[in-house]
Amino acid sequence: AMFNQAIKVWRWCSFNPVSGVKREKETKRVKYFTPEVFAQIFDCLPDWVRPIVLLAKYTGLRRANVVNLKWSQVDMKQRMVILDAGVMKNSEHLGIPLNEQAYRILETQKNRKVRAGKSNKTVLIRSSFVFCHNNGTEYTAWGVTRAFKKACRKAGYPDFRFHDLRHDFCSQLVQQGVDLYAVKELAGHKDIATTQRYAHLSPERLRKAVEALPSHA
After folding, report:
1. From CA 15, how far away is CA 153, in angstroms rounded?
2. Which of 39, 56, 58, 118 is the most buried (most CB within 10 A)?
């Protein structure tokens, strides 16, 4: 920009000497939550958002996929979330196993009840969506994002975003020693290069790798 200004306005030079130089790409940030920070943010969340946030944290699902998750995409018997290529950002099929915490969240959602009618009886909420209003209509991604950002600000961590729950999922797996290719499959990354952003979080895996070499002493 400075050289263009010099050419067009100040006429100090006739060409831009750096016009062919490509700007170095910024490293995409990798941000995850310490248990203490997550607990503080979680305490500031409204009740209706909490199960959405927890499922995102335990599955690594992108915001749109978790907010708009349908029961047709959940296999409670196999304890899996199965997403077709059509709803995925990278256009690839994804199957995510549910750990115990994630399974309990979905089980609770499945049994959600609401008071209805003049008799004020409690009835199961009927909806094709896992997360929904009492009348069965789905939540909006915008509404969830807004509630999450508000909680982050209230807790004193305004820089966190909902997408950081996905980073947290990958980061925690790597820190627990999970193989990068397994993390790639669970996160639905199209390229291993995306997953390798998290490799620095597990220096211990490199130590184990060299210690696996046979000894000839």
Report:
1. 47
2. 56
Angle separating helix axes 50-59 and 35-43, nearest 10 degrees: 150
For the stretch 115-161, pLDDT in tens is: 776 667 787 888 999 999 999 999 999 999 999 999 999 999 999 99
The torsion angles phi and psi of 81, rounded to 5 degrees, stand at: -105, 125
The number of folded domains in the chain is: 1
Please indicate, yes or no, if residue 213 is contained in any of the structural domains: no
Flag whether 174 is in a domain.
Answer: yes
pTM of the model: 0.78
In a domain, 192, yes or no: yes
What is the CATH number for 183? Answer: 1.10.443.10
Contact yes or no for 58/81 (Cβ under 8 A): no
Domain region containing 33: 29-104+137-199
Q: Are 166 and 31 in contact (CB under 8 A)?
A: no
Residue 42: CA count within 13 A, CB half-sphere:
16
Rounded distance, CA 52 to CA 67, Å?
A: 7
Tokens of 163: 């997408």
Strands (E), 30-173: 74-75, 80-83, 94-97, 113-116, 121-124
